[in-house]
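Changelog note: in this version the structure field was regenerated for every chain. One regenerated record is shown below for reference.
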Amino acid sequence: MMTNILSDVDFKTMKNDPNFKEDSVREVMIVPLLKQLGYQQENKDQMLIP
C-alpha cells in the first residue's frame, strides 16, 4: 500500500522560496516518490538516491 509520501511537503513554503529550484524539487518530491516505487540505480557512480 502506497502512503501519501507528499503529505509532509509544505507547498506554500516552496512557492515563496526563491531558492527552491529544480534540484530542491528533485530532492523533496521526486526522490521519495522513486524510492516508494522501488527504483534502484544500476550504476552506483551515477546514483541520485543514496
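Spot check on this record: The chain has two helices and no strands. The chain has a mean pLDDT of 79.
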